[in-house]
Design brief:
Elements (H helix, E strand, L loop, with lengths): L2 H27 L15
């Protein structure tokens, strides 16, 4: 893992801490089915 990946992983964890459960709850109430938590998306 390079320095950029480490930085992105740290930032995403902070965002998950702040918003993850709220967004997950909103999506579920809207009829979405959560199938992968967390869903990993690699940005190249």
């Amino acid at each position: 893992m390079n320095a950029v990946d480490k930085c992105l992983n740290t930032s995403s964890m902070m965002a998950k801490d702040l918003f993850h459960q709220s967004v997950k709850t909103a999506l579920t109430k809207d009829g979405w089915m959560i199938t992968s938590d967390p869903l990993t998306i690699r940005i190249v």
